[in-house]
Structures are given as C-alpha cells and as structure tokens.
Amino acid sequence: MQAEMSITALILEASFVVQLVMLLLLAFSVVGWMMIFQRKKVIQTANQQAAAFEDRFWSGVDLARLYQEISARAQNANGMEKIFYAGFKEFARLRSNSAVNQQQVLEASYRAMRVVHSREVDRLENNLSWLATIGSISPYVGLFGTVWGIMNAFIGLGAVQQATLAMVAPGIAEALIATAMGLFAAIPAVIAYNRFANRVEKIDNQYLNFMDELLAILQRQSAQPKAVSNAS
C-alpha cells in the first residue's frame, strides 16, 4: 500500500454508506464517554454521601435532631438521608395519632422509605440502559459497515479483467476501520455498564439494609411511652 494511503485517507475516500456508519459510531463513542463520566460522578457522590450519613447516623445522634438537620435542607437531600427523612417524617406524623396502632405506623414508615428508595435507585441507574445499548449494537453497526465495504470492493473487482491486491486492499481496509470503530465504541461502554451496575447494586443493598435497621430502631422507639414531636 502506498504511503499516502493513511487511515485518514481511507476514511475520507470511503463510500458514503461506510462514512455514515463511521460517523454514527463516532457519535456513539462520544455519547458513551459523556455518560461514563456523568454516571461515574453521580455514583461516586452517592457512595460518599451514604458513607458520610451512616457515620453520622451511628454516631449516637438523636434521631429527632438528625431529622431536623435534614429538614432544614430537605430540597438538597439525596440518597440515604432522603430515605431516612421520608421514613422518620411519616413515623413522627402518625405516631402522634392515637387512632393508628404501632404496626400501622411502622408499615407506613417503611412504605414511605420504599418509595424514596425506588426513586433514588432509578436516579443512579439513569442512562445505564443507554450504555448497555451502545455496547451491544456498536459491533453490529461496525460489522454492517465492514460487510458493505468488502461487498463494494469485490463488486469493483468484478469490473476488471485482472484483479490485484492493490486494487482490493483499500476497500477492505476502510471496511475494517468500521469494525475497529465499532469495537472502540462498544468495549468502554460494556466495561462501564458492568462496573456501574455492580456499584449501583451495592448501594441499593446498602439502602435496603439501612431501611431495615432504621425500621428496627423505630419499632423500639414506638414501644416507648415518650412521644416523638410531630414533623411538619
């Protein structure tokens, strides 16, 4: 192959369909990396916030006081502290109602925590499905470009009487570039998806364990005669 037949030249001289495939794969790669950096920041922040809140929660602080602290910045609460806020708010609100028994109070508190838990996990999983989609379809899009390029190369050979390697090599080379670009877009997306899905699952389990622990504490508190101040 001639020296001027560089990768850039192959891309520029590729057929329209192959160029379109390459452009699509480039867009997949850019979007994939944007999602990777964005999800990494969100999940890392959620993990740090959960660890910090658990340290505060198990430091022996009074739960009513902790609730008031979070209530002052409820709009900015996230993750575990938001789950605590929803559960304790419902617990304090219903416990002051004499018409509601202990079991009903605990069930309502747990339901409130479950709703917030579901929303928080959905927030962590946001865009992960796009990473999975990019990782699964990019190789096939690249393969389509490869098949199309090779097909055009062999169609071109049919129009000449004497075929040489120099005639078919550029077409095959540009086709293989599409395959490489498909793998370049897919591999980081698949690795990131698997890693993030595993980290979200761990945070999810951390949330669920905290909910069970908090419910046990609220159950002990509800058995005490001292009333919890009503949460507005």
UniProtKB/TrEMBL annotation:
Subcellular location: Cell inner membrane; Cell membrane
Annotated ranges, domain MotA/TolQ/ExbB proton channel: 78-207
GO biological process: bacteriocin transport; cell division; protein import
Gene Ontology cellular-component terms listed: plasma membrane
Keyword Phosphoprotein: no
A Pfam entry, by short name: MotA_ExbB
Topological type in the membrane: Multi-pass membrane protein
Transmembrane regions: 16-37, 128-151, 171-193
Chief location category: membrane
Keyword entries, A-Z: Cell cycle, Cell division, Cell inner membrane, Cell membrane, Membrane, Transmembrane, Transmembrane helix
Quaternary structure annotation from Swiss-Prot or TrEMBL: The Tol-Pal system is composed of five core proteins: the inner membrane proteins TolA, TolQ and TolR, the periplasmic protein TolB and the outer membrane protein Pal. They form a network linking the inner and outer membranes and the peptidoglycan layer.
Sequence similarity: Belongs to the ExbB/TolQ family.
Physiological role: Part of the Tol-Pal system, which plays a role in outer membrane invagination during cell division and is important for maintaining outer membrane integrity.
Protein name per the record: Tol-Pal system protein TolQ
